[in-house]
Every structure is written in C-alpha cells, then in structure tokens.
Amino acid sequence: MGMKDSLPPPAQAPKGYELTAVGLIPEDWEVKPLREIAQIRSGIAKNSNAPVADPILVHYLRVANVQDGYLDLSEMSRIEISRSDLNRFSVLPGDVLMNEGGDLDKLARGAVWNGEFDPCVHQNHVFVVRCGPTVDPVYLTNWSAGAIARRYFLVAGKQTTNLASINKTALGELPVSIPSIEEQRAIAEAISDVNALTQALEKLISKKRAIKQAAMHQLLTGKIRLPGFAGKWERATLGDIASIFKGSGLSKAKVVESGQRKCILYGELFTVYGISIKNVLSSTDSSDGTRSQYGDVLMPGSTTTIGIDLATASALYIDDVALGGDIIVIRPNSSRINSSFLAAQLTETKKGDIVERAQGITIIHLYGRDIRGIQLDLPSIEEQTRIVAFLSDIDAEVEALERRRDKAKQIRQGMMQQLLTGRIRLVKPQASAVGAGAISKESKSHSWAFNEAVVISTLAKHFGKEAFPLGRKRYTKLSYLLHRHVDSRAEGYLKKAAGPYNPKTRYGGPERIALESGYVREHSQGPYSGFVAADNSTLAEGYFEKWYGKAAIQWLEQFRFKKNDDLELLATVDMAAEELLAAGKDVNVPGIKAVIRGHPEWKAKLDREVFSDANIGRAIRDVAELFAGQG
Fold this sequence. Notes:
Number of helices: 21
Protein name: Type I restriction modification DNA specificity domain-containing protein
Strand content: 15-25%
GO biological process, one term: DNA restriction-modification system
Helix content: 25-40%
Radius of gyration: 33 Å
GO molecular function: DNA binding
InterPro entries: Restrct_endonuc_typeI_TRD, Restrct_endonuc_typeI_TRD_sf, Type-I_RS_S_subunit
Keywords: Coiled coil, DNA-binding, Restriction system
Strand order of the largest sheet: 16-26-22-24-19
C-alpha cells in the first residue's frame, strides 16, 4: 500500500495550505514515505537451539517493552548472540522502536530509545526506525500515534482473529508529514509536555491507590486507628449482625433500557460496582427479583473463575432495586453497622474465609448459610463511619485525578491533530530568502501566536479566578506592561479607546490556541466575564517560566490590586512617552496630553478624572521607574 492509498484529501485548499496524500498541510511542509526519511531495521529471532559462535550476552528488547509513547523496561530479557551480529541488531540512542504486531489499535506504536541499556538488541517483532537528518525521532513517534498514521495502520495492517501485524514494506510506505526540523522539535516539545502531565497523573493515581490499599487493610483490621478513637473492637459473626438470603428470579434477558425499576444482576458486582452503590445503571420492566432495602450488602453467589473473586461485596444505598438470582443479600439488623464498612471488611480482609467456604469446580458457588459463621471485628459505628469517610476521600481524590488524566489525554489528541497537520503553527513559516543565508526574524522556536497564548494563559492563572475572571481589557494592559518589562518594547499594540490594545490576540490566534490547548477556559460570574485557568494551565506556565523566568510574574504582582483605569493610565502614558522619545521630544504632562489629544480614539480620555494632569504626572514618574534603563 503506497501513499496514494491513504484517505482522499479535501477538495479545496485554503491559502497557505496544499492538498496532499495526508490531507491539508502547510505549503512549506513535505510528505514523504517513511522509507525515504529513515532506515527500517528488522530484529533478531530468538532461537535457543541454534549454536552461537563467539557469543556475547546482551539485553534484548521485546514487544512487551514497547508501549504507546513510552518504554516499560521493568522486565528486560537477555539473549546470547554472536559478537559479529551485535552491530547489525543493536539499538542506538535516538532510534524509534515500533511494534510489528499486537492489538490493531496499538499496531506500530512507538517510543524513542535513549540508550537505557548498552549494548541492547531488538526482537524480530520490534522494528528499529533510524531517522535521517530531516526527521526528529520524538516528532516521528507523535506522528505514528496521530490520527492519520493510525488510519493508515488500520488499512495496512494484516489482522487475524485476535492480533494484527504490519510488515517492513507496508511500514515503509507510511506517509509522514515533514515540517522543518525546528518546527518538528517545537511540536515534539509541546506534545511531550502534555505526555509528561499525563504520565505524572498516572503515577500519582497509582500512588494514591497504593496508599489507599495499605491504609484500608490497616484501618479495617484495627492495626491503625484514626485520631480520637481507642478501645477494643467487638467480635461478632456475620450471622449475628445480619440476615442473609438470596436474590431471585431476574434473568439477564429481562434487563431493558429505560425500564420502570432499577435492577442489579450478579455479574455486575464483578464488573460495574465498587464498595458503595449510589447509582444503579440497569433497569427492567419485570416484577421479578428480590426488592432491596437501603443499606443492603450484596455479594455474587457464583463465578466461573476462582473462588477469591467471590470476595466482592457492595453496599447498596437505594430502596426497591430488583436483585437477581445468584446475588447474596446481607441485610444488617443493627443500626450499629455501617454497610460500606461491612462491605469493605468482607472484600479486603475476609478473602481467605470466603475462599474456604466456596464450593465447586467448573462453577464455583457461595451460599449464604456458609458465610454466617465468618467472624468480624467491629469498632463503634462512629469509628466505622470515619473509616469509610477517610477511604471515600481517597477515592474522590483518585477520581478527580482520573478526570484530569482523561481530560489531558483528550487535549493531547486535540493538540496532536492541530499540530501534526499544521493548523496551529509553533514556528512561523520562513519567507523566501532574500539572499544566501537570509533568516527571517520570525524563525524561532515558537510563533508569536503561541507566545501570546502562553502569556494570556499565565496571566489568567495568576490574575483570574472564578469570582473575578480575567477580562480582555485587563489582560491586554498586563501583557503590554509585561512585554515592556521583558522585551523593552510592546509590538503590535494600537491606540484604542481603552488604551494600548493588540486586536491580533483576539482575532489572530492566541486566545483560540489557549482555549483549544486547555490552558484557559471562558468563564462568567455575574457581571464579570473573561478567562480562568484550565486543566493544562501548568503547561503554559512552564513555557512562560522557560521564556521569561519566574521573576516576570513576580514583577507583575505589583499590579494585582490596581484598578483597570489605573492600568489603562499607566499603559497609555507609557505608550505616549515612547512615541515622544522616538521623536526626540521631552516627556512631560503637556507632551503626553498632546499625544493623547492627537489621536481620535484617545482624545476623549482627557475628559476623565483618571487622566487629570496630576495623575498623568504621577504615571510619568511611575513608568520611568518601571522601565528605567530601557531604550
């Protein structure tokens, strides 16, 4: 399959773009097959029976080590190969690793090798893609994970019943969109930052889960006590504190969408519900099934896997739910029992007792009569409730982190789609060279629009909040003052009624980039509207600190409690002063007023109290101190 077999491009290209085999891309980009821009190298097959001459023991990369965008090197194999084969099959820093086979949606997933083990060779089911000078390895891994490449792999991959594979020839025909190496690296950096956020959230989620797991067992057995609780726990059997019976008569066939009654089938206790059930997903129109009561604890009564899976209990906090057959219903008979505590205790600390009572080979059953004798150690209802609340708080933290992670993944996909197709440019296209070696001033590591998106986003994070979102008028004045401070000049600002204003920040891309990248979101609160920080605001702040340093934001703190009118006065006087200086004129109150009076959109300012002679004089002194030493 060649590049022409890719999805057809749109019928018409807008200015600055062209139609290619991968769709619309900027006209200064190229599209080439992978084989023309990189070497594709096959790996070594492991053959334990073959004799090896002049052997050497080396690390050996397998399919399991190459994940989607990262490497899992927790388990590295070793292989004995001939020393003469080492150069041929070695993996070098900067190589892109792509899997030959696996699930169709993960086919050719890639990651960059950074020389973690040396020497190291690769399995024959892992391709090494060694990039030429026109391609950045990290950019290539992002491209291979993008929507265009994934669609190509769906078509080019050969699928069997359970797995898919791609051969070297088909991989070589993968069409790759190629911007300049500088833009590739800027794209790779932007996407890598989002990847880093996602991976950091994954690690934090795992850490929180591990903390919960460790704390849960200790708290549920009384080995650790929460502050304020002491005293011995009471021992009782499950049969002492609850009545135990089975659900009845509700088959899977009777579950319907939007039925009149909520219902639970035993299989859902394995796959859908956790310790507490406060929302039931399934419904039925049938009158079958045992009716639940608030606080019932439910356990599955059978499994086709192993007995330990039956140690799965859930506390149901809804009345009149239809409970199907093969559900064990444990109904506490005392107000001294917290149902979620009981469910957690059965699930986490009584697995062995439950396994001992399970019966069967092909289908393993658990009967209510057999679990009545399970012994429980129970604290006071107050301590039970506090333990449940403590564990629920951790669950809530994990769920919040999971939402942030999922949002970051969505934003990553959106960013990749925009960046890998050139809809958002991080580096402005270079103009045709005027002479040999001519370099455009705009040819830098990121575009003006992206720069201003980062500025707006960082200002929103530090100066906007839910109650008072950062409005356009205020962020415009702050960004003007920031650029005067860090760049000595504020380019692109026009004389508008509200003071210096750069309309391109609204209409030329920065606000759109900030919104689409998840750096900011629009927010309204009563009469106030503007921007507040969004999930990825820390990424924008990272760029800001890299370009301007933390001190720049600290410098802006002096304006936090300034009114918008005061900021307008400062920015207007400064812009007028710069005009006077450029013309070789003195900066004084009459001169500033002359500049203001001379512009049709500015002259009305002089009718306002904030632009009195005294205030203009004070502002002249203020801007002189703010920007002392700047030309």
